[in-house]
Description:
- There is one protein chain.
- The protein is mainly beta.
- The chain is built from three helices and 21 strands.
- The protein has a domain at 1-32.
- A hairpin with a 4-residue loop joins strand 1 (36-38) and strand 2 (43-46).
- Helix 1 (2-9) crosses helix 2.
- The radius of gyration is 31 Å and the shape is rod-shaped.
Amino acid sequence: MFRFQIIEVKPPVKIWLLITGLFWLLFTPAFTRADAFISEDRVYYGADSYTIDYEKEIIHAKGNAYFTKDDKKVKADRIEIYYAGKKKKALFFRNVVVQDQKRKSEVRGDFGEALYRENLYRIEGNAVYTDPERTVQARLIEKRGEEETVFSGNVFYRDTEYEIGASQLKITARSASFISDVEVLQLASGDRVHCSILDYSMPSRDITFQGEVVYLQKDGGESNSPLIMKSKGIRYFHDQDMFLLLGDVLIMTSDVSMNTDVARYRRRVKKLEATGDVVVRKKNRYVYCNNLEYDFETGKLIYSHSVRGIVPIKEESQE
């Protein structure tokens, strides 16, 4: 009788509230996985136990704690959520894991912080980033918005083709930019590159090296002598396996060295073309020209355009 009277007083309102509550409880995935919900920011969180400090406006979650907003879920041993004020944030302590469902990436570390209204997540302390294409280690990892992740301090990057060390790295959906003290190892060939800045295009896998670039190739030809190339900038075209060197180019092997303005090195066929003011030194002779072709396998040199002669170098007398 009592229940019947309540329903009769305002039946549409009570039935609507009951149906709405059951709908959110049963059919909202994020809600059913959570222990609690901050409705204003659509933040879900939970733990083995949690308390709320209403005076300081902090939520303390301990033991298998987690925090979820939009496509990102963070797990940690302990979480503190500051749910009021202009800078709403969450702090994560020990065994921190940030999972980004949209990017299919994961970041692990010892400590973390999220400015969740700004979609900014920072992880530090043995921080490691992984996605289907690469693994990156760094002192600090920041996920900024949906498109950008920044790595700082002792960065070590590895994918199926390269190992790269640097001071800083920024990854977006289409590129990776390495900054300061960049060292590259190409895994298949063993070749190395040292530079100041490296821009790595994700779709094409082309690479731009800048800032006093030094390229070291293990095998320079039949003599198995190393090849060293230096330049202000080098562009690597992945599909052609070709290096374009621009500005103050120096190329050295055990048999020959040359200076030029522009050079193209086709590694697959081990041939080099140089243009501009080309100066070649081989043993005790210099050659000046505007165009040069060099076959690393055979050691053959072809000079053309304004070849200005062969100048012997005076040999020192031997006593």
